UniProtKB/TrEMBL annotation:
GO MF term set: beta-glucosidase activity
Top-level taxon in the UniProt lineage: Bacteria
Protein's UniProt name: Beta-glucosidase
Family: Belongs to the glycosyl hydrolase 1 family.
GO cellular component, one term: cytosol
SUPFAM superfamilies on file: (Trans)glycosidases
PROSITE patterns associated with the record: GLYCOSYL_HYDROL_F1_1 (PS00572), GLYCOSYL_HYDROL_F1_2 (PS00653)
Enzyme Commission code(s) on record: 3.2.1.21
Catalytic residues as annotated in Swiss-Prot or TrEMBL: 164 (proton donor), 352 (nucleophile)
Organism listed in the record: Lottiidibacillus patelloidae
Catalytic activity: Hydrolysis of terminal, non-reducing beta-D-glucosyl residues with release of beta-D-glucose
Single Gene Ontology BP annotation: cellulose catabolic process
Length: 445
């Protein structure tokens, strides 16, 4: 039986600035923390950097043609902060020009720009003044946001303040696998707090001060977590990972408080929680218009007494993507049920979903990525089913338009529905792009 998508359901595809743009020294841009990090030996696989990436900065018109050919309603991209503020307090109109042209051309093509302000490329100057660990970052971000709102709001369909604060804060400052590569839990919690605070400030600025009217929200990476068994210990492990990845962000943003069990668990790593100031939680929970979710996989954990928060990954017999992540569309649905029950009635956008696999470019320029086709079909079916059940998923953005710089994995992991030959910068539509186009055009699966 075919499942239908409503007329106003938004189909899209997504990218982010550092992962595709390249042109790191052009248009007045200064380095971001990801330039610094990826240039540090040992941080990124094969020593890859985003210096050239997909050369999208020069090829964006060609890339818009690809987006057009997919028939999607919307395109999600992010703005490189160091193009807009290459130095503290110094606005760079030339940097903004790029995003204006991109947005205008998208609008002309009938494609709605969905713009993320922060997808992890903090200017190096801001990092040197303390980065997200410093409370001043809230102010720096607000200035950046204000300029973007001023210059781009007329073209933009929807705004996302932050992409995946968990990654920026915890992968960046606790696990050290993302820029800036620190391993300090207290720093990570401060960074998370300031990122969420800057989200609240930006939404408030947008609505209350600037009185602008498009939709604005935040995107979280959410992973439904399960214990390997029903034992109390494994369930505790699951609760802790759920707190670490999901609740630490969901609770402040949607309920205006931090989860107490996690505050207790973290307290031995934190000198004091006085970086959480009076009024902060209210601001963090400032009402936005939607919740964005990036969904990739569920996680299965077991109790592990020797690890900081008492969990470790457990063996799972699920089929895996090329990242080794469980393919878990059923758990995606469970995540949405939980959000509806415990957290929010806001429209939900799936702002990213997709998978890496080992793609092979055939001599005739085709890529038969049947595993990705199946991954996308399974998750889109889940979205359609959820909507039939009345859960109001307002849109779906396939990650990613192009193979790109996959952070710590460099160019080795390909998430694109378009294959990029990084030697020639030639693009080739994979079978998944063709299948997605069919679904988008038929608006049914
Ligand atoms: C997103 O982050 C990013 O927004 C995007 O830039 C990136 O290219 C894309 O995903 C693909 O990676 O513990 O092994 O089960 C992904 C966030 C967080 C998703 C960790 C997978 C669990 C991995 N990821 N999560 S595992």
């Amino acid at each position: 039986m075919k499942l239908k998508f409503s007329k106003d359901f938004i189909f899209g595809t997504a990218t982010s600035s550092y992962q595709i743009e390249g042109a790191i020294n052009e248009g007045g841009r200064t380095p971001s923390i990801w330039d610094t990090f990826s240039e540090t030996p040992g941080k990124v696989l094969n020593g890859d950097t985003g210096a050239i990436a997909c050369d999208h900065y020069h090829r964006y018109e060609e890339d818009i043609e690809i987006i057009k050919s997919l028939g999607v309603d919307s395109y999600r991209f992010s703005i490189a902060w160091p193009r807009i503020f290459p130095k503290d307090g110094e606005y760079n109109a030339e940097g903004m020009e790029f995003y204006k042209n991109l947005s205008m051309k998208l609008v002309e093509a009938g494609i709605k720009p969905f713009v993320t302000l922060y997808h992890w490329d903090m200017p190096q100057w801001a990092h040197e003044k303390g980065g997200w660990v410093s409370r001043d970052s809230v102010q720096w971000f607000k200035e950046f946001a204000e300029k973007c709102f001023e210059e781009l709001d007329e073209y933009v369909g929807m705004w996302i303040t932050h992409n995946e604060p968990w990654c920026a804060a915890l992968l960046g400052y606790h696990q050290g696998v993302h820029a800036p590569g620190h391993t300090n839990m207290e720093e990570a919690l401060k960074a998370a707090h300031h990122i969420m605070l800057s989200h609240g400030e930006a939404v408030k600025l947008y609505k209350e001060e600037m009185k602008l009217k498009k939709s604005i929200g935040i995107t979280l990476n959410l992973s439904p977590v399960y214990g390997a068994s029903d034992s109390q210990n494994d369930q505790l492990a699951a609760n802790n990972l759920d707190g670490y990845v999901n609740r630490w962000f969901l609770d402040p943003i949607l309920k205006g408080n931090y989860p107490m069990d996690m505050m207790n668990l973290y307290s031995k790593y934190v000198h004091s929680y006085d970086f959480i100031k009076e009024g902060d939680l209210e601001l963090i929970a400032y009402p936005s218009d939607f919740l964005g979710i990036n969904f990739y996989n569920r996680q299965l954990v077991e109790f592990h007494s020797a690890s900081d928060f008492l969990f470790k990954s457990a063996y799972s017999d699920y089929p895996k993507s090329g990242m080794g992540w469980d393919i878990s569309p059923k758990e995606f649905k469970e995540l949405i049920y939980r959000l509806r029950e415990e957290y929010t009635d806001l429209p939900i956008y799936i702002t990213e979903n997709g998978a890496a696999f080992d793609d092979v470019l055939e001599e005739d320029g085709t890529v038969h990525d049947k595993d990705r086709v199946s991954y996308v079909e399974q998750h889109l079916t889940a979205v359609a089913e959820l909507n039939n059940e009345g859960h109001n998923i307002a849109g779906y953005y396939l990650w990613s338009l192009l193979d790109n710089f996959e952070w710590a994995f460099g160019y080795e992991k390909r998430f694109g529905i378009t294959y990029v030959d990084f030697d020639t910068q030639k693009r080739y539509l994979k079978d998944s792009a063709k299948r997605y186009t069919e679904i988008v055009k038929a608006r049914e699966i």
